[in-house]
């Protein structure tokens, strides 16, 4: 249930660890998200609506609320962008979870302060483009993002149902531009 080969991405597996999901022990690799580890373990329903309908992965980039889970006592954690940790306790939840007033988090990252000339919030296409322009002007910006990697919407799968055909809307997979030696227009190696 894990991708091993991909035409353009390399998968480097971290150390094997375990965490619990609703009391069940799940194996995972450091560096993968909770949702990825649960998907690999065959878990498809991450939470349920108040009406009892199962909810699972939807956007997979932290931009919806389909994968909200309770992690180490903290409700409404997005499982698709939260890395697994050894010994973590993950529970499915019903509807939006509420924080217990007496709750004290077990893991709290210390706050860091940094003085920078320009801070860019968001490492998606706009943030990266702004950072690139600033670098050209000799300014070194700090780019911050809620995700552990750059890209934002760039790493989201393309939609099949809207957009411009000229911009390859509806095309899935990896598009290869022709090299200097010519060849065909390109190759869709999807899905
Ligand atoms: S699946 Fe959309 S935020 Fe996780």
> What is the helical fraction, as a range of percent?
under 10%
Question: What is the arithmetic mean of pLDDT?
Answer: 82
Classify the fold: give the CATH topology of one domain: Ubiquitin-like (UB roll)
Low-confidence stretches: 182-191
Q: Describe the oligomeric state of these chains in a short phrase.
A: single chain
- What about the largest sheet? 5 strands, mixed
DSSP strand tally: 9
Give a structural overview.
The longest helix is centred in the C-terminal third of the chain and has 12 residues, at 125-136. It is globular and about 55 Å long. Strands 2-1-7-5-6 form a five-stranded mixed sheet, covered by helices on one side. Strands 3-4 form a two-stranded antiparallel ribbon. The protein has a two-stranded parallel sheet with strand order 8-9. The chain is mostly beta strands and 191 residues long. It contains two helices and nine strands, in the order ββαββββββαβ. Among the domains are: 16-91, Ubiquitin-like (UB roll); 119-167, no CATH class. Bound molecules: FE2/S2 (inorganic) cluster. FE2/S2 (inorganic) cluster (FES) binds next to loops.
